[in-house]
Amino acid sequence: MSTKPTRTSTEVLEEAMQMPVEDRKLLMNPNDRAKMQKMKRAIQDQVSADLGLSAKQMLDNIKSLALTGKSEGVRLKASMDWLDRAGFKPAERIEHTKVARTVEQIEAELVSMLGRETADLLTGKRKIISRQNISEGEVVN
Known about the structure:
Number of strands: 0
Number of domains: 2
Number of helices: 7
Radius of gyration: 35 Å
Shape: flat
Distance between the termini: 102 Å
Strand content: under 5%
Largest sheet: none
């Protein structure tokens, strides 16, 4: 008689953490999901602690490479990395491009957005006529 290998609940939860979220929701009850979240937090805390413990050593390594690296490229890269981490990262450049448009294209866009009359008023092709001027017979185009 053969027996199936049994897995612990921790092993099952670790496998579930690798599954797509939708599949995970179907297979796990709320208690299992809570356990999985707790495991995730524990793993994240452990990783953070490990990184924190080795950070000083890594920074010392970068500093050593910056000062004593055998090639200029290594020293330059380590120096730049050190400065970046110290808050002296160079400003990033953002390139803005403008599409050149003709006056006619801009007017057509105004007409499409606001209508012909309003666009003509904005571009100065037409002026607002007061009632007083109309009564006196004055017409402005």
